[in-house]
Specification:
Length: about 325
């Protein structure tokens, strides 16, 4: 397989990874603030159903207005589910894991019930747009700038999230409330309020991810439309080390694995299709286990001192110190 064949595969992988990018950025924002939101699967499904239902209902108003309304509705649904997680975890001080898991199951069932009138009917989709001049750059243009509007928004979201996390004072406080909430509170930060805000923002991103599925990647709506991508997003956030850039790259890696599995399926017809369908998921699990193993730790320690810290930052995944822990704000 030469470069001319690989470039379209990688370009497709980047485009199809976009919903996962939004979902993982949303989960990263919430977990960086110290709140575990395991409702990702249910939130994405509810976002996918809501976004498509609204866009389809308002289709007569025009493609762009209906799509904007669909994505807005999906974001609000995602934020509403995240509010339940935040209220239960931060106000009622109940188990974040239990609340999120129940909401994941509830969201999956509720999306199937409410979305039944919209199953397998055509609807509006995000239009494509090739960026002038940039699309003509050899290799880079074909990979990144011959796609649709949603892909370009995801590029901006990745860059903005990274800059916000590591180059702004607000981002420093976000990381502080997830790492050292007592110290942040001592400096005058309302930890509970900020955790509410970031959890809702993260939930809105996951709702948008759902709409990105039903209005772009897998246009339309069907029961269990997102096929477990919420659980994949949770794993990718860990694999990406809660760093927006690493998380996004991990999403693209997963997309590339899926694209390559699709190519292998067409070139090796004797192998059952189920093997290629689950292969990317299994490979991501294997990579996650390897990067968390003691064997990797030994390899990193064996590296020369100038390299061991850099390699550890790229490979190891250390969760925020206060992730999932109850904070008592007096």
């Amino acid at each position: 397989m030469d470069a001319a064949q690989l470039i379209p595969i990688f370009a497709t992988a980047i485009a199809t990874s976009t919903p996962l990018v939004f979902a993982c950025l949303g989960e990263t924002i919430g977990e960086r603030a110290g709140v575990i939101n395991l409702s990702a699967e249910g939130t994405i499904l509810m976002g996918a159903m809501t976004g498509f239902a609204i866009a389809k209902t308002l289709e007569s108003t025009g493609t762009i207005p209906s799509l904007l309304a669909g994505f807005t509705g999906a974001a609000l649904v995602g934020a509403a589910i995240a509010f339940i997680v935040a209220f239960g975890a931060l106000t009622l001080k109940q188990s974040q894991v239990a609340i999120g898991f129940v909401l994941a199951l509830l969201g999956a069932s509720l999306s199937s019930f409410l979305g039944n009138p919209f199953v397998r009917i055509p609807g509006p989709t995000v239009p494509s747009f090739r960026i002038p001049l940039l699309q003509d750059i050899p290799l880079i243009g074909q990979l990144f700038f011959q796609s649709d509007w949603l892909v370009y928004v995801s590029y901006f979201a990745i860059a903005f999230a990274w800059i916000y996390f590591y180059r702004t004072r607000a981002g420093l406080m976000l990381r502080a409330i997830g790492e050292q909430p007592n110290a942040a509170f001592a400096r005058g930060t309302n930890v509970v309020l900020m955790r509410y805000i970031y959890t809702l923002v993260g939930g809105a991103f996951m709702g948008i991810a759902g709409a990105a599925f039903s209005l772009n990647f897998k246009a339309g709506w069907s029961q269990l439309h997102t096929a477990g991508y919420g659980w994949v997003a949770l794993a990718i956030v860990i694999f990406g080390g809660w760093n927006p850039l690493r998380v996004a790259i991990s999403c693209y890696l997963f997309g590339i694995l899926q694209s390559l599995a699709g190519v292998a399926q067409s070139t090796i017809p004797d192998v059952p299709t189920q093997v290629f369908t689950v292969a990317p998921f299994l490979l991501m699990i294997v990579l996650l286990v390897l990067t968390s193993s003691e064997w990797v730790e030994r390899v990193l320690k064996a590296l020369p001192s100038p390299l061991d810290h850099t390699a550890s930052e790229l490979i190891r995944s250390t969760p925020p110190a206060a992730l999932g822990k109850v904070f008592e704000q007096d």
